[in-house]
Write a structure and sequence with these properties.
The protein is mainly beta and 710 residues long. The chain has a single domain, classed as TonB-dependent receptor, beta-barrel domain (Maltoporin, Chain A, Beta Barrel), CATH 2.40.170.20. Helices cover 9% and strands 54% of the residues. The chain is built from eight helices and 38 strands. The chain has a 22-stranded antiparallel beta barrel. A hairpin with a 2-residue loop joins strand 11 and strand 12. The protein starts with a helix and ends with a strand. It is found in: Cell outer membrane.
Length: 710
């Protein structure tokens, strides 16, 4: 039985007090302590737009560097994000897409998290998330990852709701020469990369290319949606028990060119041969394949002394184009599926639906810092975004029966593109204009007050205003206290607004945005350069949650602002360099979230998380890094009567050898060393979950890596 939240908070504060007493006894003077404290602290710009030490930033933030990523042997961004306190990576059955669950805020398509690449959103209009054909993100081009837990709409606008993830790619300075490398391992996986950073003709240039191919883990789904329909209609079509379909091929290419005040960046994320996971309709589909091309380019002008030394001006234009394409027929239900009690099989080839979506996004923004006022740093900015879901295509062999809620045959594959009585989504666009104002006020020694507000106008649902307040107190040279308030919103996705003829859910053009208000209290304590402790407590209220609810008199689920949720919790972090060769890092997160409609636990998200990592240089140039991720107490939502999902712990181990003949480096990793049966919750269903035994994660796997620098 676990302690109450109050008991945990008191215990954590006692830890901070004890560490403080130990620091006082060291006899360190303030000047020496400050040099030790800030000499090695990570800086972050995600919280205000201007770089500051994490401990003084008006947000609860985490920074993960390229060295951290390499140390843990991560091969994908999801493995990196699982180390962040209060953030858990769950899975969607379709494609096993990641659900970045911040502080108990969970939804199947996860639009409540804003992901940025170099400060620019990669949100799509269709589902409001990163992409349905996400396919992971390799890590060799990443210089650092900045994460804010909590709202960020006062700076970043829509979807900076539960948290913000900013991926900063490498520049010429980060690469400093040429690196080539490769990795191979379990599931017939292999990756290769080449990075180069140099000065060409007066320009700083960085070029990055990564390629990956995998069959994916093949854990078994024991029963699926078709298993349920077989029991109802007397068929035997289900492919369960059978493996998940997680194969994919990735190409990631990036270019970074800068000179003086200008920087040009461009990138391609190509996903092909993308498997359907546990099936787009939660029925196994071993042959369906998707593809996606995600292109981006941005041009930034930044002059820290534009008019005078008091003006820091930035302007940026960017373009992003993304697609969801079908490479091989996607089957919602397998061959032999039949939803009619009459003799004969309606779908001898299976229920086939091939949805394709094409989007383009153009953005322009400008902002300026003014420091000419005593004790004030003013930031003002404005911008616009034009998003266009410009093409929707669909080939399918079924239509949706709104009376029964089941598919019925069309008499073969038909191209229904442009047919509003058949196609699954309308083509639409969205315009967003915004302006923001922020003041950082040093109103007294050791006190800083940040106030910000952003106004957004959307062409499809109107206006929204989102403020934030932050009081940061340098309580003493080694302790910072923060009190934070923020309001954020999440714009309805086009699937929620404009879905039509969809067998799962129908859109509603009259939706309001979701909103959240969060209050946080945080302590950051650094008694020595070797020890860092942090504690944050939070409470949030989430309103106007968009849910697909039954439409009275039909079998259809329609999007409505139908939900409310509240939550509270804490996150405790510790980072301790015991010696020059041995380092410990860990965090513990607790959250309790309540669905206010039912009064029950909101479900899905872990109530407790524990992460531990050690780093031991046991010989010169030899480093051993074990890590443990323990996920505890995931409740089922109200109405889901399955037994509680089992806890799991995953232990990984990475051994790395550097400076082999100066230029070579090698590493070996084993993930889930003890081959634990780890599972993420599958969606609840009515009358029962379509995948009753949840979504199995990878078992024990091995990876070897080698890289060469010159």
């Amino acid at each position: 039985m676990y302690f109450s939240l109050i008991t945990r908070s008191v215990f954590c504060l006692l830890i901070l007090y004890t560490a403080n007493a130990l620091a006082v006894n060291t006899g360190m003077d303030d000047e020496e302590a400050l040099l030790n404290l800030y000499g090695g602290e990570e800086m972050i710009s995600l919280a205000t737009g201007n770089s500051k030490p994490i401990s003084r930033a008006p947000a609860i933030a985490t920074v993960i560097t390229a060295e951290d990523i390499k140390e843990i042997g991560a091969t994908d961004l999801d493995q990196v994000l699982e180390t962040v306190p209060g953030l858990h990576v769950a899975r969607n059955p379709s494609g096993y897409n990641p659900i970045y669950t911040f502080r108990g805020i969970f939804s199947q398509f996860n639009p409540q998290v804003l992901m940025l690449i170099n400060g620019i959103p990669i949100t799509n209009l269709f589902f409001g998330n990163r992409h349905q054909i996400w396919g992971g993100m390799p890590v060799q081009s990443i210089a650092r990852v900045e994460v804010i837990r909590g709202p960020g709409s006062a700076i970043y606008g829509a979807d900076a709701f539960a948290g913000v993830i900013n991926i900063i790619t490498k520049t010429k300075e980060d690469i400093g020469g040429t690196e080539i490398g490769g990795r191979a391992g379990s599931f017939n996986s292999w990756n290769g990369w080449a990075l180069h950073g140099d000065n060409w003709g007066g320009f700083d240039v960085a070029v990055m290319l990564e390629y990956g191919d995998t069959d994916g883990q093949r854990r078994i789904i024991n029963a699926d949606a078709q298993t349920f329909f077989d029991s109802q209609f007397g068929t035997e079509a289900s492919l369960a028990p059978g493996p998940v379909n997680l194969q994919r091929e990735n190409i990631d290419a990036r270019l970074d060119i800068s000179r003086e005040h200008w920087r040009l960046r461009a990138g391609l994320q190509r996903r092909s041969n993308f498997g359907t996971g546990a099936g787009v309709a939660q029925a196994l589909d071993p042959n369906g394949r998707f593809a996606s091309n995600r292109w981006n380019v941005d041009l930034t002008y930044h002059n820290p002394t534009f008019f005078s030394e008091n003006w820091d001006v930035m302007a940026q234009a960017s373009y992003f184009n993304t697609s969801q394409e079908v490479e091989h027929d996607v089957r919602l239900f397998p061959p032999g599926a039949d939803f009619n009690s009459s003799p004969g099989i309606d779908f001898p080839q299976g229920v086939i639906g091939n949805p394709e979506v094409f989007e383009r996004h153009a953005r322009f923004k400008t902002s300026a810092f003014y420091t000419g006022f005593e004790r004030h740093q003013i930031r003002v900015g404005a911008g616009m975004r034009y998003g266009d879901l410009y093409d929707v295509k669909e080939v399918k062999n079924y239509e949706f029966d709104f009376k029964t809620g089941l598919p019925r045959p069309l008499g073969g594959l038909r191209d229904v593109t442009g047919n509003l009585s058949q196609v699954f989504l309308r083509e639409r666009d969205r315009k967003n204009y915004y302006a923001f104002l922020q003041d950082v006020w040093n109103f007294a020694n050791d006190w800083e007050f940040t106030a910000g507000v952003r106004y957004d106008h959307f062409s499809d649902f109107g206006d929204t205003i989102n403020p934030r307040l932050a009081l940061v107190w340098a309580t003493r040279y080694d302790l910072t206290t923060k009190l934070l308030y923020g309001r954020a919103f999440r714009a309805p996705s086009f699937a929620e607004l404009f879905n039509i003829n969809n067998p799962v859910a129908i859109g509603n053009p009259n939706l309001d945005p979701e909103t959240i208000e969060t209050v946080e209290l945080a302590f950051d304590y650094r008694p020595t350069n070797a020890l860092h402790l942090a504690l944050s407590l939070f409470h949030y209220r989430w309103d106007d949650i968009i849910q697909f609810v039954p439409d009275p008199g039909t079998s259809v689920n329609v999007a409505k602002n139908a939900g409310k949720q509240k939550g509270l919790g804490l996150e405790l972090e510790a980072d301790w360099a015991l010696t020059s060769t041995f380092h410990l890092l860990g965090n513990y997160a607790f959250q309790h979230s309540t669905d206010e409609k039912t009064g029950k636990n909101a479900g899905y998200a872990p109530q407790h998380q524990i992460y531990l990592r050690g780093s031991w240089e046991f010989l010169p140039h030899w480093r051993l890094t074990p890590q443990l991720n323990w996920v505890i107490d995931r409740a089922r939502p109200a109405g889901d009567n399955r037994p509680a999902i089992n806890n799991y712990s995953i232990f990984d181990l990475t051994l790395r050898r550097t400076a082999i003949k100066k230029h070579w480096e090698a590493a070996f990793s084993v993930r889930n060393l003890f081959d634990n049966d780890a599972r993420e919750p599958s969606p609840a269903g009515n009358p029962s979950a379509l995948i009753p035994n949840d979504l199995p994660l990878s078992g024990r796997s091995f990876f070897g890596e080698i890289r060469f620098r010159f």
